[in-house]
Amino acid sequence: MTAEVTSLYADWKKIYPRYQIGFFRNLRFIIYGLELGIFFILPWVRWERVGVDVNQAVLFDLPERKFYIFNWVVWPQDIFLLAFLLIAAAIGLFFITALAGRVFCGYMCVQTVWTDWFLLVEKWFEGNRNRRVKLDQSPWNREKLLIKFGKQLVWLLISAWTGITFTLYFADAPVLLQQYYAGSAPFPAWFTFLFLMLTTYIMAGFAREQVCIYMCPYARFQGVMFDEDSLIVAYHPEFGEPRESNRRNREQMGNRVGACIDCNSCVTVCPTGIDIRNGQQYECITCAACIDACDSVRQKVGFEPRLIRYTSLREMGGGKTRFIRVRVVAYALLLTLCLGGIVGYLANHSPLEFTVIGHRQPLYILQSDGSIQNNFTVRVLNMTDTQQTYALDVTGLPGATLTVGAVNNRDSQGHPLLTVPPGSVTPFSVYLRQARDHVVSGRQEIFFILSAQASLGGTSTYKSIFMRP
Ligand code: SF4
Ligand code: SF4
Hints:
Elements: H1 23-41, E1 58-61, E2 66-69, E3 72-74, H2 79-100, H3 103-107, H4 110-126, H5 129-137, H6 142-168, H7 173-182, H8 187-207, H9 209-215, H10 217-221, E4 232-235, H11 237-240, H12 247-252, H13 265-268, H14 289-301, E5 308-311, H15 313-316, H16 326-348, E6 352-358, E7 365-366, E8 372-382, E9 388-395, E10 400-404, E11 417-420, E12 424-434, E13 444-452, E14 459-466
Antiparallel strand pairs: 1-2, 2-3, 4-5, 6-8, 7-8, 8-12, 9-11, 9-13, 10-12, 13-14
The protein binds iron/sulfur cluster (SF4) (2 copies).
């Protein structure tokens, strides 16, 4: 007796989604166009920054460890903001999912956007669904070879341009492009470009719906973000069933027929190949292509549209969808807190940072006039894009005199003036002396204060210790 082997995996069947125009198709086009436009154009947008060579609006300068995003320069010490932004993005995703289901998958996800673009190219070369099916079933000949070759070539060009564009965010775009042309681009750039080109080509050209169904973790855990008020795309069996393609016969026989004419249009347009009439399925990315398809069919046959529509489980059960509910409000509050925190930090963040390191060899110097001197190294980071001059002051030490090595300039109140070029760190040797009349024994807590002369240069304070015998 031989044991029967059952595969745990379903055989892959190629899906030929039919192209269908309609309201939601147009809406998706607009969103996809915006997304692609921003991605491909942004590295080419120039942005003047006074005193800095970098004139690219968005540049992630990894060697310098600085991110330029229009007027905002993210320094390594601000990197936690990016973590906050990622947290905000995750909460935003929870919020939008609780409210509108998998609308992110159908309208914004890069996998959907690039797959749709590749499908358009496929349609342009091979025709709409029926012609594509026929072409795949037909024997290879010169025409089929040319069509397939043309499609693959355009796919590869799109993939290459996607990979190149991604790398342009990490270097001066025109320079890097020239380096690619001359073959002299650095290895990490080549590697990233080729890796992204390959993954785009495979994911959008071949893996397509498999990514959404099997690979994407979001599809798996989205269930916990849903509730019965979240928007879903659903078929309404109470209107549609019993479905019947040959309505006249059934009606003549006196049988009740539902509004669904069983034309299969909603199935043939589905990018994940499911039949929405079978109920809610995790493969559904809420793209609403089936709504467009059903609306178009039903307008042609003269029935009321919207057999398939955006609804909620509560609405399907006869209730009314509640958009404002605890879960949605909680996500909205968290999102507001997170974004508010980022905006607040940016609004109050000083574009100036400095550190003070007290010299420990020796801890203090007893001068011939009886005063005590401590030496410090002050490192000043100017995070603006212009040269700044800062006045250095100290508080908490009566009878104090500040001197900065190689700096003779002082402001009207006698504070030493430190000049720091834009976007750089400059160290200064600082000598702090306390006059004999004020000296008492022991350590003294003091505060260094650095204030920019220009209004946008910032002010910062640093706590330190003055050492005495
Ligand atoms: S069932 Fe409809 S909404 Fe869901 S993926 Fe298919 S076409 Fe898109
Ligand atoms: S497109 Fe509409 S009418 Fe046609 S099979 Fe689907 S639900 Fe029925």
